[in-house]
Specification:
339 residues, mainly alpha, two-stranded antiparallel ribbon, 13 helices, globular
Amino acid sequence: MTATTKPVGSIPASDQAGKAAPADQVNRWKDPRYLALRNFAMSITVFNIFGYTVLGWEQPWLWPIFAILTAYTTEIGLEWLSAKVNHREPEFAGLGPKGMMAYLLPAHITGLAANMLLYANNQWWPVMFCVVVAVAQKHVLKAPVAGRMRHFMNPSNLGITVSLLVLGNWVSISPPYQFTEWANSYFRLMIPIIILTAGTVLNALLTKKTPLIVGWMGAFAIQAYLRHIIFGVQLNTALGVMTGVAFILFSNYMVTDPATTPSKPWPKFMFGSAVAFVYGFLMAFNIVYGLFYALTIVCAVRGLSWWVADFRRKRREAAAPASAAGQVGARVGEQAVAT
């Protein structure tokens, strides 16, 4: 949930530093990227408050605060270090209170998402590890795109994936019942409907990720049917995953991260479909936590493709002068023979 070299939906550095025209300084707060980021940060904050006070979430109530502070500290510290090493000003320099708030929104979202989706019993340090990995990877895992370096791994998802792989004895994904544990039957039904509605509006109007969600959910249903036909998996079980709150949260708020997903309709559709089919492949081998691993794999392949494309472009550019020099030499030789 981040953008460019910065977190998701962040405002261009030139605007943040106050170098934009006055009209741009006014309009930047109406930028859909910022609005999507702000609304998502507000919704996940409200959902966490709601979860701890009404839904019966099991993690200690101080942990989301610790997670947010860890994310803020990691983001600011690594940006300051990067700026010092590269002899430039930190991107948060001179932003002012509102600009600093916008700068830290992605870290805010990452911290809350990691704490909400990862269950570490009574141990805080695995959650802290997850948050640090999620925020820090944006400064490390980058690929060249259109002349600039962009991070390509979904921050929260990668932090959770690494934590599950490295700390499997201490952590797991939050149990699905956590999101509706204290709710009665009617309220339990309304929770996923409210989340689905809010997420759909956010993605349709601001992030414009509707094609991605269509590809993701359509392909998810197809892979469930294929596993039913090929491996004999119960169809209602394979499709039943789509009715859970965790799946709806993943679909509307994780897989649709604006900064680490394509921006054009057809690539969006293919990205969502790819995540679903990789998930189906992992499930065929009984690999748990397939949702998170599938998204990590697809993001990694996308980032690798950027590096491959950049390598091929540089080879073509290096070969072009040599080819041109050869053609000039051939013409000179022809002229010499003619004379």
